[in-house]
Design goal:
Blueprint (H helix, E strand, L loop, with lengths): L1 H35 L3 H31 L3 H4 L1
């Protein structure tokens, strides 16, 4: 029984000295990054992706209108 308490004590000390501080540092660092929001680079990337998505949507609409004119029943084939 005494060996169990020694093992538990050593495990608890190792956890409190090594694991807990690293865990807390990483936890609060990630909280800080989340609260800061997006960086300027990330905002620019998001805007760029949004513009590309709008261009793709316009192209798809154009292609669909061409297909509607040339092959009226193309939607029912799929």
């Amino acid at each position: 029984m005494e060996e169990f308490f020694i093992f538990t004590g050593i495990t608890l000390v190792v956890f409190m000295v090594f694991v807990a501080p690293i865990w807390l540092i990483l936890h609060y660092r990630s909280k800080k990054q989340v609260s800061q929001g997006l960086s300027d680079t990330e905002i620019r990337s998001m805007q760029n992706l949004a513009e590309k998505a709008e261009q793709m949507a316009e192209r798809i609409e154009t292609l669909e209108s061409i297909l509607d004119a040339e092959t009226p029943n193309w939607r029912s084939r799929a």
